[in-house]
Amino acid sequence: MPFQIIVHQPERILEVIYPPQPTTADLDDYLARVREIIDGLGGDWSALVDQSQLRVMPSQWVAAMAKLNAYAQLKGMKRSARIVSTAASGLQAWRMTKQAMLNIPARTFESRPEALHWLQNPDEE
After folding, report:
1. Helix or strand (DSSP H, E) at 106
2. Helices (DSSP H) in 1-125: which residue ranges?
3. What's the rounded Cα separation, in Å, for the pair 92 and 12?
4. Contact 35, 2 (CB under 8 A)
5. Domain residue spans in the chain?
6. Which of 6, 45, 106, 118 has the fewest CB atoms found within 10 Å of its own CB?
7. What is the mean pLDDT of residues 15-35?
């Protein structure tokens, strides 16, 4: 099962749903597709990344994802919300954020509604 990518145009939210066990081919396809979408967004936007189904991300992928996050920030990403289901996946999300040296608000959540609310209401911190 590949990564799912959904652009919520009115809200300017790029949503990505990770598969439970992505392959290297899935990752390569995702990186190419999402960069193209990011390039087309233009202006400010937010990311909603659902990693709740992901079992474990291979450690060598963390660097690739961190690089993608840094690229996304340069291309207008202003907030990033991650949905995780375990402490381990939360730690991995934190590592990616740290490695990307993001200078934007980034948080992890246990549910999609919480994450969406946070993205849609930036003044409520």
Report:
1. strand 106-109
2. 24-41, 59-74, 87-100, 112-120
3. 25
4. no
5. 4-124
6. 6
7. 93
